Amino acid sequence: MSQNSAILKTRFNILKNTLTLLPKEPILKDAFVGFFVTFLLAGGFFLFWKALEFFDNLGGVGIIVVNRLFYLYFMGLFFMLVFSNIIISYATIYRSPEVKFFLKHPLTYSKIFMVKFLESMGLSSWAFFFILGPFLLAFGIHGNLGLDFYLASIMFFLPLIVLAAIIGTAVMMLLLKIIPNKRTLIAILVGITIAAIFAIIRVDVVRPPALDETSFFLRRLLPYTNLSNSLFLPNFWVAEGITAVIQGRYEQALFWWLLLFSNVCMGILVIHSLARRIYYPVWEKIQSPSATKIYSKSSIDSMVNRFKFISPDSRAMVIKDIKLFSRDAVQWSQFLIFFGILAIYFGNLQSYSYHLYSPMWKSLISFLNIFATALVLASLGARFVFPQLSLEGRSFWVLGLAPVSFKKILLQKFWLSLFFSLFISVGLICLSNHMLEVSKTIWVVSLSLIILSCISSVGLSCGLGAVFADFTVKNPAAIFSGFGGTLNFALNLIYLLLTVGVVGGVFHFNALGRIAGIVILKKYLVLCALGVVILSAICCVVPLYLGMRALREKEY
Amino acid sequence: MIKTVGLCKHFGKKKAVQNLNLEIKKGEFFTFLGPNAAGKTTTIKMLTGLLKPTSGCAYVKDKDIQKDFLEAKKIIGYIPDTPFLYDKLTPREFVELVGTLYGLERGYLLEAAQDYFDFFSLNEVADILIENLSHGLQQRIVYIAALIHRPEVIFIDEPLVGLDPHSIHLIKRLLKKRTSQGTTIFMSTHILSIAEELADRIGIIDKGEMIAQGTFDELTKTSGVSGKLEDIFLKLTKALDDESEFSNFKDKI
């Protein structure tokens, strides 16, 4: 058996063994995951369908927008794929323990690289089919397109995936070659991302005075369309190729596909040759310990120790958590990217003259901003807050044996996460409200909503993190992508839809004049406030209570 | 100081520990031997309250480890076989964290930590991140973290993994000193020479059952084998029967 076949067979065996375990999973878990996936796909389809319908209703200009949307969509996918490959290739190709195992065996560096490259490509790309599927279906049904459209889309999307993987992986390899250490690398990546987002947001600097619905949407979309039509970008070849298939211009479609394919072949040659030369030196550089910085007395200690009302052991755990977070660039960079993007966007709301819009639009934008902030918070909560307790399982001999109750550990994590969540999200919503120059009522409602969302989101993540704590798992990805992690995110999402969605809906209908009179509005708002407060209390207290109870029964 | 009554632990159908009855006195150095998967770590985890027994009870200084968990934890120190350290903390920060969790007074904690850093020659690395330290240096930090609160009972699971001869020498002396001061030590190890050298009493567990316990002389009598502890251990665990398997092994490569 050749080396390639042996490695492929191993991958197949791992997959087979994993699949064999599936029937042993509880039916409830499988049913829930199945329901959640269906919900996501159906939700995606519904949103795309509604968007296409909306543009259709705009008339002539809407049809242009729909066509542009098709090109924009593939541009978005392409850039997201490249970015995803940049991030995942680092973890898969350079930090994976499996590389060490391969290096002990008589395999060439380029062969090891290609195996890990394929793995990285798969990990970076599989989730995109969940975005592609609903869009293609909505677009296909909307345009009454035949089977050839779907087949062509897949035929064109596959080489795009490979090309994005080649570009993303090559970018990461070159960055690692040039940049001296991991910290600088992450700082540069964060900087590039934020600068890119900033550039995109600031593209639209010249604004037409008209502010009706059509111009509102066109001004949001048109600045992007030029880039999506660039001849040098592979996403344009994909969109052109699929369009050619739709219009029956098969020779042209073949030309665009061959252009993609030839670039993929060339890209593989380039990356293979690059890997032969620099993969091992780069890998070796990453494994060597970084410069040993001296950490003398930290300001975090003195800052936290000022809060004398917190017990010394809780303060010690808080100091530990803050230090671990602040020293791990991989963690804080994700916060910086997501909240940085929101902050830049909110900070630029006046550049778009949103503050001059009608109250209906301002109210809509304001609630969408709350939803976006709370959603980012929920995602980061699922990624960082939920796995916290499971990850402490590794330190059982310290925390598990110290004379500190599990209740105290759980509550410490809850309060610390809540403090930072509130600090960031309340700040963002204040910025959004200030820029939109919203009414006092919206100020009060939006701040109340975001505070309650924070409490619920952190309570859910901490509580369910304790209920589903698995002290044997070392990989955070395995924790938050498991059943408990998915349930946590799904419940967060449902909570947001029920609260922000309903309250925002009341304001929106009121702005549209569909709620008759201030008395009825007040009645609705009081009902909403009661409902949101009760739901938030349930979402926070119940999971925390269940979490504490579960921790008492847990074994290390 | 340590007492177990009919201690059992089952994982599904697998009986990891069966009917374990032990009594270890204050200041005694007890070593716990056994082949792989014999139930040593499971026993230690039950004695430290990290695992709940399926049946039976475990007491540390007359405190039921399940019922008086928090009280019992105050007097326990544990050195696991695969310890996890927060790699983004420095050794000093880590030891301060552990000391504070045990409620040590800050002045005493800083002084004691410094003492240990001197003793284990860790001063040069006390303020750099743990992730930059070698396995051996990390193991020394584990000892400091487990001993800083002066536990009355110390549980050690594979004590000397990754340590250099100098550190091993230091730790052996330190542990002996602690037992002479009244600390009870329960140590599980595969290094039989260490057990022979340090232990006051030895217990041998196999397939979850305690098959022998006593002083070295008592074990010699029980097994009917005179000589090294290795021979006694192999005899009692019936590992000598496998000799024929070794002679039959065709080492083709």
Can you tag this structure with a few keywords?
heterodimer; A: 556 residues; mainly alpha; 2 domains; 0% strand; B: 253 residues; alpha/beta; Rossmann fold; six-stranded mixed β-sheet; four-stranded antiparallel β-sheet; 10 strands; 38% helix; globular
Descriptive report:
The complex is a heterodimer of chains A (556) and B (253). Chain A is 81% helix and 0% strand. With 556 residues, chain A is mostly helical. The radius of gyration of chain A is 26 Å and the shape is globular. Chain B has helices spanning 40-47, 69-73, 91-101, 106-119, 135-147, 165-180, 192-198, 216-223, 229-236, 243-248; strands spanning 2-11, 14-24, 29-33, 55-60, 63-64, 76-79, 153-157, 184-188, 201-206, 209-214. Chain B folds into two domains: 1-19 and 29-42 and 50-75 and 153-243, Rossmann fold; 83-150, no CATH class. Chain B has 253 residues and is of the alpha/beta class. Chain B is built from ten helices and ten strands. At the A-B interface, helix 13 and helix 17 of A face helix 2, strand 6 and helix 3 of B.
Write the layout of secondary structure elements.
The complex is a heterodimer of chains A (556) and B (253).
Chain A: H1 3-21, H2 27-57, H3 60-94, H4 97-103, H5 109-125, H6 128-142, H7 147-178, H8 182-202, H9 213-228, H10 234-246, H11 250-287, H12 299-304, H13 312-327, H14 329-347, H15 359-385, H16 388-392, H17 396-400, H18 406-436, H19 440-467, H20 476-480, H21 483-511, H22 518-553
Helix pairs in contact in A: 2-3, 2-6, 2-21, 3-5, 3-7, 3-9, 3-10, 5-7, 5-11, 7-10, 7-11, 8-14, 10-11, 14-15, 14-18, 15-18, 15-19, 15-21, 18-19, 18-22, 19-21, 19-22, 21-22
Chain B: E1 2-11, E2 14-24, E3 29-33, H1 40-47, E4 55-60, E5 63-64, H2 69-73, E6 76-79, H3 91-101, H4 106-119, H5 135-147, E7 153-157, H6 165-180, E8 184-188, H7 192-198, E9 201-206, E10 209-214, H8 216-223, H9 229-236, H10 243-248
Helix pairs in contact in B: 3-4, 3-5, 8-9
